[in-house]
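**Sequence with structure:**
===
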Amino acid sequence: MKYPVLIALSLVLGASASANAQGGRGTTATNHAAQRKAPEKKAPEPAAFYTAAAAPVPNWLPNTNPLQPSATVLHDLVDTKLDVRFDWARQWLLGTATLTVRPHFYPQSQLVLDAKGFDVKSVELLSGSSKKGRDLKYSYDKKKLTIALDRTYQRTEQYQLRIQYVAKPNELPRGGSEAITDDKGLYFINPLGTEKGKPRQVWTQGETEGSSCWFPTIDRPNQRMTQEISLTVEGGQKTVSNGLLVSSRRNPDGTHTDTWKLSQPHAPYLAMLAVGNFAVVSDTWRGKPVDYYVDPAYQYTAKQVFGNTPEMLEFFSKKLGVDYPWEKYAQVAVHDFVSGAMENTTASTFQQQLVQFTARELADVSYAGFESVVAHELFHQWFGDYVTTESWSNLPLNESFADYSELLWAEHKYGPDAAALVQQTKLRNYLQEAQTKREPLIRYRYANREDMFDRHSYDKGGRVLHMLRSYVGDDAFFASLNRYLTQNKLSSSEIAKLRIAFEETTGEDLLWFFDQWFMQRGHPELRVSHSYENNAVVLRVQQVQDTLFQPVYRLPVAVAVWGGGGSSNQPTEHRLVITKADQTFRLPAGQRPALVKFDNEGILLADIDETQSTEELQFQLSHAQGYLQRVQAIEGLRSKSADLLVSSAFRNALTDPFWATRVAALEGLRRYRGAEGTAVRKDLQRAALSEKNNTVRATALNVLASFPNEDFNEAYNVALKDSSYLVVGAAVEALSKAPAAGTRAQVAALQSTRNPALLTALSNYYGLNGTLDDYPWFLQRSQDAPPEVLYVLLENFGKLMNRIPPVEREKGIQHLENLARTHPQLYVRLGAYKGLHELLTSMPTLKTTLQDIRNKEKDNDLKAMYSLVQ
């Protein structure tokens, strides 16, 4: 399913690409324990405060949540035909649904449909070719439509119903989650056209059970239906839905009706529609339409964003041995989307901030940004759409594969270092969340199905698949996926079917792997040390995790040993299997090794504390076999950066072919205090001004700013004119700490920007250095800035107001209070709350307002976050 909205939003804050690569923020499997100190403050990520806000959950507590079985199937949905039009002023959908249904096994005389918040006009039974139906009795409680059939039907008998209704999504009670911030299913954007600069659109979001907010259905993932949707819309509006456009007719009233037909069955939550003034950029793959729906202003950069889609279709089809199974593939950018993206069958929907960029902005966004989202949603067309989880408890059968596709694509298109960066980032994401929650991947007990959409189902699941691939080998891994897809196509699935597919392919009983990684909570926490004695490396591995509710893991792992004497020869690799809580291995070695590297391929999903000497880390950095080893060595050596050999190694790493390694090396030189001070500063300035990679240039500026009371204004001023928003933003951030003569005028020239990274930097500058003259800027930008910027901007607004006369603050305070109470995004409400909190020192009377906001907040997670604001 969706790309979680908070993770997705962090991708569009220009600094997020560097954040993923910076050694101070990222962690590797082999060095996570050493990186638990608070990271250097960078441009904030909206997702970052979630982990910090929650209290640790004791792992020894039993799960008391209710059991969540798959929905019992009484009826099979066979086909759904919808004829809909829209009342934009009232934000209603006027619909006629024709459903073809049959009993699943047992005879049935009643049908219960999910239908949320409708006005039901009529329910009719259709027979033969007659257009006139026969009224049926029904009861309706605004959630369930219970229909008394005219007789008892057997499982061999289909029947057809026609339901006329009005869907009123805005009258539904509000719901949602961290991953999906709203659940009303149908969304009108700027319906009256009163919001300047925003198009009029209507779109849907079905997962988890939002489809039943706009058409009557059996809203469960273990249902499948073919589908036909006819959309009557205003002239000039374009439509898109699942399947192929089979007809389009003009109507006498100036409207037109487009009919979209999906000929293979899919789950109801994957049904979609989108209507708006889109520009449609067309592409193809093996003769199938591949279309990109974007705002007209972005039609000329759409292929730069989505243009690798045909290559992805070819790569995934060949890798899986199952050709893309649907009639077409469309990708649609919409405004105010409630998640990052959603894999509707044949037509994925994207939050427009993730995929709509100007040419200048595109230069700042790496493959780890929009391309990872594109790959993620595309892979869902196999894992999620072609084969669908039978229940939300089994969600990782959808999400872990989509998550892992991001690594597969990076590996194929950009090489092993790029894939290793994905591995590092995803592992970091999971280990961060695991500080506050540890759940099994397959969760048959949960409080709310939305709880499944977390970094366990995504990031942990993807890392588990990476270990499985390493264990069985590439040929067996992809042959097993082919078997799984082929055996379960166009149906729903559970974890046992995936295990069986691997066992039938490999001939090995893999219950141990699936049990410890999918069915049990937690992850191994390893303490690794080694010594040399009697011509052998003595390697000790201790599993130190709490094993009351976490297993002692069976861990196949590779250990590499490099010969001694500074030799640059290739290492000897040892394949071990760890099975005990405390285990010692003897590895033959003719001389004391220069380096012993545990999990040298970076495969394990583990929190590893590995004892390594400075000399070993230096050897590792100079002889590293890939990005993960290089960056782990840099992180391990950061505290020794004043050492001449270490700083020289970091400076050498500034020429590494992979940009993320160069970023890590720069971070290793932050606040450098060694003997190479002049040379280091020259290297940093050279990187800030001459590096080809935008993220590296921006990081170099940020590192220069870490040297207090030193003047690098010449570099900052040059950077203010850079072609990269990311670099300009870094220069503004640097100047905010030490503004010089003329800085204010240079910064003021940037005020009208709409770029998120630069807006965030400007708000930081004015939060620290602004005056009453900048108050109107904050008032304006707090109304038109995108949500991912508001989280930071609103807190900075409060900082600014502390420095202006109290009589001038009224509008700003009212605006912050209104956002803190009513904004739909949790992190915007938190940002507004923090802005008000900043004013407490000069306006202690606001304490009552803040208390009232806390008391009336309905989201428990946000209430917990409020308690941490100081």
